[in-house]
Specification:
four-stranded antiparallel sheet, mainly beta, about 100 residues, globular, single chain
Length: about 100
Amino acid sequence: FELRAICGSVHNSGNIIFSADGKYIFSPVSNKVNCLDLSNNSCTTLPFEARSNISHIASSPDGERLIVVSEDGYSIIVALKTMIVLAYCNFRGKVSSISFS
């Protein structure tokens, strides 16, 4: 299955993930993240943006945090319930994969 467009924006890179409860799909679109609500058939753009195109996203096992990594190695950690940015991190290079443990 190939995801071509989410709510009018073209998905061109990065991984797509499901939320821990399976109700949402998170997809990077350029330097922003779209959240597709599968229960209500709606889509919203999360209120933050990365410095460059997003290459990787990951959700914590408890579903409370999301980490977003851009192509240039800068990351953002976000609390999903409040949509507050918790931290920024610079990996100082390209990141090949990211996950919570």
